[in-house]
């Protein structure tokens, strides 16, 4: 009987799939943040700018929690494609944390104490750490749904591009693209281990009771520290820009309840065309960020955002 190549122990072993093979490539980008960043980068409004600074501050601890909750179940992931998607998700989140750490340093240099919202959210997440690993994964699935909806809103209209200064705009566009690329990974791992109705129903109250107060405290602290609380016109305009009828945050929040639908899956809302358009816009031959692309971070399922050392640029 003729021996097949797959049964020959001396034959070449098939290459292991990576995140890039399954549409979740880890892109190391060294963003060229200006030395003197514009002070009010969101529509020249302090209230809205500090909301954006607060979001940037909470991404590193939040994404560390996301990665840990998914990686906890990596040994249950046997299917090769999903393993590759988990690896791509992990590597993308590592790089997101690194670049937001750099942006947060720039905000700090501008006098914004963004370490306060960062620590507040990190403390809130320690409460979620005390729940079961399955419950943590359900909470992560909910928060990943939020980031995916926010990412789609950022990329789906020109509003964000018009309002946010070029100093930091492309960093948010890149982050939003990758949030859409890996938006279903957490949910697919959760489905693999067996979704649970009560866990899903508890996710929203748990996140609202822990993370939301930390987020609001962090934003309020920045508003007080920067003296914006004494500028009612700025507060009103910032609230309108974010939460007014038809505005950014209100649009995102209106889409959150779909997470509770029995047939929920992130991919039921198709964003592939939007992703393809922005991949070309950012990383095509003439893409806005093509020149800042460096060697991708090595993909691993054992890496958390705070464990990754600085990626080395291509020689």
Automatic annotation (TrEMBL):
Biased composition range(s): Polar residues: 1-10
Chain spans, region Disordered: 1-23, 292-315
GO molecular function, one term: hydrolase activity
Membrane-crossing segments per the record: 203-224
Keyword annotations: Hydrolase, Membrane, Transmembrane, Transmembrane helix
Compositionally biased residues, Basic and acidic residues: 296-305
The protein's Enzyme Commission number: 3.-.-.-
InterPro entries in the cross-refs: UCP07580
EC supergroup of this enzyme: hydrolase
PANTHER family, sorted: METAL-DEPENDENT HYDROLASE
Name of the molecule in the record: Metal-dependent hydrolase
Organism whose genome encodes this protein: Pseudonocardia spirodelae
């Amino acid at each position: 009987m003729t021996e097949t190549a797959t049964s020959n122990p001396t034959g070449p072993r098939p290459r292991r799939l990576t995140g890039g093979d399954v549409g979740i490539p880890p892109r190391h980008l060294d963003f060229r943040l200006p030395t003197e960043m514009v002070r009010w980068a969101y529509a020249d409004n302090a209230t809205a700018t500090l909301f954006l600074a607060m979001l940037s501050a909470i991404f590193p601890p939040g994404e560390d929690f996301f990665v840990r909750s998914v990686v906890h179940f990596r040994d249950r992931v046997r299917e090769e494609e999903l393993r590759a998607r988990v690896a791509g998700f992990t590597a993308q989140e590592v790089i997101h944390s690194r670049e937001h750490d750099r942006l947060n340093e720039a905000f700090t240099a501008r006098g914004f104490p963004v370490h306060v919202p960062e620590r507040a959210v990190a403390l809130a997440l320690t409460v979620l750490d005390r729940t079961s690993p399955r419950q943590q994964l359900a909470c992560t699935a909910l928060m990943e749904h939020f980031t995916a909806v926010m990412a789609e809103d950022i990329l789906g209209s020109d509003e964000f591009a018009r309002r946010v200064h070029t100093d930091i705009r492309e960093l948010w566009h890149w982050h939003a693209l990758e949030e859409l690329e890996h938006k279903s990974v957490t949910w697919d791992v959760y489905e693999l281990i067996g979704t649970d109705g009560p866990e899903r129903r508890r996710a929203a109250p748990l996140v609202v009771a822990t993370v939301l107060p930390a987020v609001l405290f962090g934003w309020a602290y920045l508003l007080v520290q920067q003296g914006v609380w004494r500028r009612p016109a700025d507060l009103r305009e910032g609230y309108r820009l974010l939460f007014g009828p038809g505005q950014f945050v209100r649009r995102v929040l209106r889409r959150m309840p779909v997470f509770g639908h029995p047939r929920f899956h992130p991919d039921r809302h198709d964003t592939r065309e939007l992703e393809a358009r922005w991949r070309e816009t950012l990383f095509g031959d003439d893409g806005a960020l093509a020149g800042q692309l460096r060697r991708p971070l090595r993909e691993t399922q054992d890496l958390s955002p705070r464990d990754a050392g600085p990626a080395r640029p291509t020689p």
